Peroxidase
Amino acid sequence: MASLSALYLQALIIMSCLVFGLASYSPLSPAYYDRVCPQALPTIKSIVEDAVRQERRMGASLLRLHFHDCFVNGCDASILLDPTPTIDSEKNAIPNANSARGFEVIDRIKAQVDKVCGRPIVSCADILAVAARDSVFALGGPYWPVQLGRRDSTTASRSAANNDIPSPFMDLPALIRNFKKQGLNVKDLVALSGGHTIGFAQCRVFRNRIYNETNNIDAYFASKLQATCPRNGGDSNLAPLDPSPAVFDTKYFSNLLTKKGLLHSDQALFNGGQTDKLVRTYSTNSFAFSKDFANSMIKMGNIKPLTGKKGQIRLNCRKVNY
Ligand code: HEM
Ligand SMILES: *[C@@H]1O[C@H](CO)[C@@H](O)[C@H](O)[C@H]1NC(C)=O
């Protein structure tokens, strides 16, 4: 009896360590706007739902914006700044140019949130984080408490965007190194790559794979894609990243098992390396994928946030305040 309650106490201590450990791990908090503007989060959610209802792909585009923000000097909305004589916009970086989308939805959210809150207190960086979560949820994915309280940058870096956003031509060791640089581990890499269960990619990023990579690609899959993506031209023609690009499911992973990953970097996660095992797990266990994806999204959202007196709360997500 005594040992049983001791065990119970031990479990309680471990659990509270987890809870408080998590809280102290980040200077951010999910309750950040609860008192100052309780309508902020519901407002973001309803605009995201609207946008996704109009175009399912928008959910994917908004998820990707948060990722591309966080990997470049932290989650500080630097990706949203338009070019000016002093801003070398990340929108012009190779991974974003003619590719990153959803900026108008973020503008709409920002205007409406500032209106319902009566003043500009919600940062553009937090809007990106919440919009990513609400997008995933709207497409049938997991829901997680988004950590909040990030502030917005006053600078952007096109060169950092070029250096730090992973390339679709990377092999597994390069992808692992790229994520490690952000404080993310191999499990985070595999779970977050599952973001490719939604959305599309352009011919130019998978052309080499479907014509040249005969070893680790399903031949029929490659030949079908060649119809959408000719050897010459059609650079911006789209193909879905998995067979159900508007549903957050595990098909991204099950496709890797049959060598039907669209990007070289997707198939790199299942090509005889250390991540094969986790890809297999996620391919049949949507609960494990959802849980790990949510955890890794929180971790990604915690990359180098600006807090306290650092940065600012932008009035317009595209511009630095004067
Ligand atoms: C692991 C390294 C990654 C690489 C190399 C990579 C690369 C790419 C590329 C090349 C595209 C297609 C862009 C285009 O053709 O316009 C894309 C799309 C996308 N990526 Fe990734 N990505 C990675 C990780 C992630 C992560 C971590 C997330 C989110 C958690 C994510 C979410 C998305 C989404 C949702 C799309 C579709 C966007 C749309 O349809 O507008 N990716 N990615
Ligand atoms: C296939 O690889 C060769 C040699 O690297 C390259 O020159 C060619 O452009 C590639 N083909 C496609 C369609 O990407």
